Structure formats: C-alpha cells, structure tokens
C-alpha cells in the first residue's frame, strides 16, 4: 500500500537526488555545478511526468492513468483509485436508476417527471399508453402542449394539488391526475385510469335506483288497498280482489328479495372446487313437471335428455341457473309456443344444455344487455308475468363459476336459443350398472 504524498516524502526525494551530486562534488570538486545539474535533472523529471499527466487528462482516451515512480507513483496511484471509485459509484447509480425505472414501470399508474414549468424529462411506459406520450421524442416538451385540456392547464396554474383532478379524455376514459413535489423545482405527475371505477359507481347507482323502483310499485299497491280498507267497509267482491292483488304483490316482492339474495350470494362466493356430483337428468325430470304445471297447457314443452349425463359442479347454483332458463321460456313466450329443452353430449364430448322456443324472438340490439340486472326487453310484459329482471344475471354468474358462459341466439319470428356448454372435464363417468341398463 502506497503512502500519501507529503512534504517529508518530497524532501527525502530531493535529498536522494542531491546526495550523489554532493558526494561527487566533495570528491572531485565542482560542487555548485553538480548540485545545479542534479536540480535541473529533478525538474526535468517532474516536467516530463507533468506532461504525461496533462496528455492523459486531455488527449489519452484510456481510463487508467499512466504509471510512475517516486512521488508521481503515489499521485498516479491516487488518481487510479479515484477513477475506480467513480466507476463503482457510476455503476451503483446506474443500478439505482435502473431499479427506479423498473419499479416505476411496474406501477399501475402513469408517471411523468416534469419541471414546475411543465417541461417533461421522463415518463414511464404506462404514461405513453394512457396519456399518448412518446418517449424519448417528447423529452423537453411542455406537457400542456401534449395534454390540451383547459381544466388540466388551470389545475397546474392554480397549484392547489390537495385534491385530484379527473378528466374525460379520448374514448370516454376517465383519468385521475395527482401532482406532488418530487424535488426542488420538479413535479411528479401521477395519472390513473379510473374508468372502471366510474362504471361500477354508475352500475351501483342504477342498481339501487332499479331496486327502489321495483319495490315502490308493489308497496304503492299495498299501501293503496290498505288505506281503502282503513277508510271504511269494502264490498266483498272488492275486498277479495284487493286481497288477491296484495298477495300477488307480496309474492312479487318476496321473489325479488330472494333473487337479490341469491345473486348477492353467488357474486360474493369465492372460487370453489366443483366437486358436487349433479344428476342433471333427475333435476330436469322435476323441472319438467314444474314447467308443465306453470304452463297450464299453454305451451308445447319437450325435454330431450341423456339419462346418463351427470356433471361436477355446485348443485344449488347449477339448479338455479337451469331452472331460471326453463321458467323464463315458459313465462316470457306467448301461448302456443313450442319449447324444447335439451341436455345432451356434443360431438366434442362436452355437455350442452339448451332451451329453444319458436316464439317472437329477441331483437339483436337487446341480446348483449340481457344479462344486465333489471334489464327487460318488454318492461310492461315482464311485470305482468312477474319477471324481476335478475334471472339471467344469476345465470351469468353461476356459469362463470363453472368456467362456462351463456350463449344467446335469436332469429325474430323463428326461434330463440339460450344455451351453455360445460367442459368434458366436468362430466362424471357413468357407473357400470348404468351402462349395462342402457345396453339392455
């Protein structure tokens, strides 16, 4: 390990150069001239090393300084150590910047670093997707030239960042902006896409509005008849009609509440193992009797069932989905309609359930919205038949738990089909005795 350069070291070096000249002068004479020559040689040596240092600093492209001897060895070694420390610090700084950028890229928000004047000097990839920025083309651009929204310009100008700013930009996307000081004279602009949150909030408001509307009608009917009964004696015929209507409205509210609870329970249910062995043919035989009773001879109802086709799933939920599809066909098709319910294997080995009718059909613009809560194609007819507008929403969530989806096809005036398909992996292999019985 070399020692650092000190006055003592320089004095020792001077003595070592002058000592030979002193000895030679004492022995041979010419002492002053020999001392001057020794000093000139020392100065020439220092000048040469100084020129080497200057050449390395300004001309040479090598990272390491030249080697030297004596006092210059200590100086060159010190410069080499300083270069090594600087290189190590630069590597650490590069790694730190790399980790910062990697972390910033993994955040779910768009990040923009800008000066207080709005000059952009960095942004992450999400900012390019959400805000339409380009990197590095937009380096040095003013953000107000790229986001031309008066509300955003006013938000920056007023500098009151205690509350976020929400803007509706292209394609009806809601973007929430937050700005905070990053360092002296710099801002960190955070933008988050809150479109889904706004949609959920809108759906929540619509849901409560629809529930309130659905409950208000029967409650109004009940309240009206109760006031009539309270005011005085009612004729027997009118009283019987009032009681029947009140019972119908009470059943309607009871059905609505039950379906709301069912839908809430299904939505809140976490993912679960589909382990229940469901005997769908037995379930359909019960539903056939119920559907025929509900139809009271108004429809032609036919069931086409594979008696050995059983599946794994959640028994309660799948029963709710299938019964909703069957009851919808009976309740919402006119008298004389033919209804075919099938539960059969597909050529690919899956299990397909379908409800087909030859009723008036459904217009194409209504089909994408049929599984929305409280959505009705014909609101007046749905209320007459007691429909709540929740049945297909329940079916949709049940099928999502079984990794399936509801398919709806309709040709107005010809036929309408509601169907879903369960994967072959959910089919239960038939027992041996079933196969034997089938062979017989």
Automatic annotation (TrEMBL):
Spell out the reaction equation it catalyses. Answer: ATP + protein L-histidine = ADP + protein N-phospho-L-histidine
List membrane-spanning regions. 12-45
Instruction: Give yes or no: UniProt keyword Translocase.
Output: no
Annotated ranges, domain Histidine kinase: 210-426
**Topology versus the membrane:** Multi-pass membrane protein
Q: Which intervals hold domain PAS?
A: 89-172
Q: What is its EC number?
A: 2.7.13.3
Signal peptide range in chain numbering? none
Single GO biological process annotation from the record: phosphate ion transport
Q: What does this protein do?
A: Member of the two-component regulatory system PhoR/PhoB involved in the phosphate regulon genes expression. PhoR may function as a membrane-associated protein kinase that phosphorylates PhoB in response to environmental signals.
Q: What is this protein called?
A: Phosphate regulon sensor protein PhoR
Q: Gene name?
A: phoR
């Amino acid at each position: 390990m070399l020692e650092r350069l000190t006055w003592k070291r320089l004095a020792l070096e001077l003595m070592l150069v002058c000592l030979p000249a002193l000895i030679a002068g004492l022995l041979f004479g010419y002492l002053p001239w020999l001392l001057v020559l020794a000093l000139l040689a020392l100065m020439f040596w220092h000048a040469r090393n100084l020129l080497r240092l200057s050449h390395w600093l300004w001309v040479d492209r090598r990272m390491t300084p030249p080697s030297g001897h004596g006092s210059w060895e200590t100086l060159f070694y010190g410069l080499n150590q300083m270069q090594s420390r600087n290189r190590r610090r630069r590597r650490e700084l590069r790694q730190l910047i790399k980790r910062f950028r990697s972390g910033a890229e993994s955040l779910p928000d768009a990040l923009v670093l800008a000066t207080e004047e709005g000059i952009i000097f960095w942004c992450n990839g999400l900012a390019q997707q959400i805000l339409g920025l380009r990197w590095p083309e937009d380096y040095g651009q003013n953000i107000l030239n790229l986001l031309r929204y008066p509300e955003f310009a006013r938000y920056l100008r007023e500098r009151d960042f205690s509350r976020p700013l929400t803007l509706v930009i292209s394609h009806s996307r809601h973007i929430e902006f937050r700005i905070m000081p990053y360092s002296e004279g710099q801002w960190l602009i955070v933008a988050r896409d809150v479109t889904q949150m706004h949609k959920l909030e809108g759906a929540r408001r619509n849901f409560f509005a629809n529930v309130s509307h659905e409950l208000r009608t029967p409650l109004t009917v009940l309240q009206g008849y109760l006031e009539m009964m309270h005011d005085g004696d009612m004729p027997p015929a009118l009283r019987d009609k009032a009681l029947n209507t009140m019972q119908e409205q009470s059943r309607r509210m009871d059905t609505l509440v039950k379906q709301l609870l069912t839908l809430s329970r299904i939505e809140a249910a976490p993912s679960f193992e589909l382990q229940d062995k469901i005997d769908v043919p037995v379930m359909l035989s019960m539903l056939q009797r119920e559907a025929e009773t509900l139809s009271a001879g108004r429809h032609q109802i036919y069931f086409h069932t594979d008696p050995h086709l059983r599946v794994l799933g959640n028994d309660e939920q799948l029963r709710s989905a299938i019964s909703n599809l069957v009851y919808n066909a009976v309740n919402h098709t006119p008298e004389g309609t033919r209804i075919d319910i099938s539960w059969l294997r597909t050529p690919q080995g899956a299990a397909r359930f379908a409800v087909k009718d030859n009723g008036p059909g459904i217009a194409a613009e209504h089909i994408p919205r049929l599984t929305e809560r409280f959505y009705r194609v014909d609101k007046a007819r749905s209320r007459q038949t007691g429909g709540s507008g929740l049945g297909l929403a329940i079916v949709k969530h049940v099928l999502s738990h079984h990794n399936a989806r509801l398919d709806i096809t309709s040709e107005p005036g010809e036929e309408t089909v509601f169907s879903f398909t369960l994967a072959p992996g959910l089919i239960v292999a038939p027992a041996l005795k079933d196969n034997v019985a089938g062979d017989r």
